[in-house]
Amino acid sequence: MTRVALLGGGVMGEAVLSGLLASGHAADDLVVAEKRAERAAELTVRHGVATASGPEAVRGADVVLVVVKPADVAGVLGEVAGQLAEGALVVSLCAGVSTAAVEDVLPAGTPVVRVMPNTPARIGQGMAAASAGRHASAEQVARVVELLAGTGRVVEVPEKLQDAVTAVSGSGPAYLFLVAEAMTDAAVTLGLPRDTARELVTQTLLGSATLLAENGEHPTLLREQVTSPGGTTAAALAVLEQHGLRAAFGDALTAARDRSVELGG
């Protein structure tokens, strides 16, 4: 069985951990490096995994998953670089951090794969994109895709597209949570109890996303099927268009992409 070390036990680190356990990895084959003692203890109690310092965690690991803040990557990797096993595969799940930046901190020739995940990985419904570094083979990228399958869907993309992926699926859940928040508040303003409004909005988003995924039709066609000429939906969509919804999303994703580039710099 593959021995996996996770550097970082925050929200995304735990999401990946949960996915690994759900897909059949034994807790005994996983170890988490988390500097906050209280958080480390919490992960052990909740998931039954061992915790250790960074250097201890990577010692003997076949795969090292780096799930820390972008600003902490160089420091964290610097602490463990000397303890990496020969041939260990390093996987960075840190927004905006290039494979070249990771490779620069590690022993020459270390295979690195960059992955952009998102938070629905916590429930096995994540969307992630993987890219190979200079020394990672196609087989090693496939290994990462298989390893993370328990967190949701994983696709392979050229690394030059990772900043765009970050803007779309990496940050994407926040956009939908904001939509859910806004729709719920608007529904309360219309007189609905908040609990009822939240249930209506949540199930509408879930059902719509499921229909979009399983139906296979273009979203334009699905939107048109809901929009009767002169009806309630048409009235609502006209207001959203007047407020520049499409342009706002275009600007928002561009801003997220640009920030990802800045973080990588």
TrEMBL record:
* One biological process term in Gene Ontology: L-proline biosynthetic process
Residue ranges annotated for the Pyrroline-5-carboxylate reductase dimerisation domain, each copy included: 159-263
| One GO cellular component term noted in the UniProt record for this chain | cytoplasm
Ordered alphabetically, the record's keywords are: Amino-acid biosynthesis, Cytoplasm, NADP, Oxidoreductase, Proline biosynthesis
| Family per similarity comment | Belongs to the pyrroline-5-carboxylate reductase family.
Major subcellular location class: cytoplasm
A molecular function annotated in GO for this UniProt entry is:
pyrroline-5-carboxylate reductase activity
Q: Which domain of life is it from?
A: Bacteria
Localization recorded for this chain is: Cytoplasm
Role, per record: Catalyzes the reduction of 1-pyrroline-5-carboxylate (PCA) to L-proline.
**Pfam families per the UniProt record, alphabetical:** F420_oxidored, P5CR_dimer
Q: What is its EC number?
A: 1.5.1.2
Name of this protein: Pyrroline-5-carboxylate reductase
Domain Pyrroline-5-carboxylate reductase catalytic N-terminal: start-end pairs = 3-96
* Keyword Thylakoid set for record: no
What pathway or pathways are given for this protein in its record? Amino-acid biosynthesis; L-proline biosynthesis; L-proline from L-glutamate 5-semialdehyde: step 1/1
Residues that bind NADP(+): 7-12
Q: Does the keyword Electron transport apply?
A: no
This enzyme catalyses: L-proline + NADP(+) = (S)-1-pyrroline-5-carboxylate + NADPH + 2 H(+); L-proline + NAD(+) = (S)-1-pyrroline-5-carboxylate + NADH + 2 H(+)
